[in-house]
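Lab meeting minutes (informal)
Scribe: AK
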Amino acid sequence: KTLGPAIVWSDAVFMKHFSAAKRWELNAGALNLVTAGLPAHCAVCSENIPVSDCDGYLLVDPVGITDTEVAALEQKLAEGKGIIVVGETDNKRLMKLLGIQKTVCLETDARILVHREACERLAVSVPEDACFHKELDILDHIATDAEPLVSATDGRQERVLLSIRKTASGGKAVFARRR
């Protein structure tokens, strides 16, 4: 057993970032969460997910993740484990697993909404002074089957920044749209 989620390494994600000449900020993203108090103490290669026994799995900017890797995560979610995705993904199957969908970015200044009732019902703590950047280029997902905890709105449309999707098995899929 592990205390907290395992950080997931994926060769496919690494190669997608590498071929696009982008840095994969895996360490920085995970370190930010650990510094904030997330107890992540191990890592797992995506090919070993089916045989791992972790409480949850943390993916940072999993652009390029394969359907095979997502299938392994789906199985873990069905077993009641947790999935946390921070950042961007381009895999439709992973987005469906998270209960989100990519859409057009908001094109105007947005107001941050913290959905307090949902946070209380799900026992999620979002501090009053939480700082969420209103970067327009990240306001590009809507919740389809997930419950928004934090979103941004221009008064007409809403985009999810933090959401959770619970499964019947007790698994939780968390999406945080940050870089």
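Next up, CB showed the second protein from the same session:
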Amino acid sequence: ITALFFTLAYLSSCQRQGCYLTEKTGGKGSVLVMGNSRIEARYTKSPKGFLQEYFASRGGEWILVTSSFTPPEVYPDESIQLYNSEIDPSHRLILTEILDSVSIIESNQDRIMLSLSGMAEGHMVQQVVSLAKDDSFFHIEVSTVLDGDPPTLEYVLSPFIFEPSNKPDFIHTPNLKFVD
């Protein structure tokens, strides 16, 4: 899988006048990078799947906007167990724990589409990420093929962490209660 990941990255690079798909090597190891002049996504393969990081360009610098959330390996007893897929791994699917391969659906200067996929407990999951050359956003679509007859599921989550560089002007959280 790793060899395929790096081979695809090399074969699919294009000039930065439109969309680009390339491989960067740095402190985190090899990173698959897709982007345009406005935004960039970086996919770093790890033993737990892919770390997904999404950046926006500001003044010639890439600013991290959001990244994929990976639940902790050990939960404190008093913590909320929403993201603890170990409670019921057949019915709690968290994409960041499952995605383990990448393939290129389309790659040219006008558009890039990547497919990240994986299998868990007989369930197949896929996340397709697309970007057009003039877009200021990534389109992320998640699909699953569930095992079982009938298939049962508690949830499929594709969680991300918002990385604000400034305090937001407004946050809508109707059920949030502040603790003094």
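CB comment: The radius of gyration is 18 Å.
No objections, moving on.
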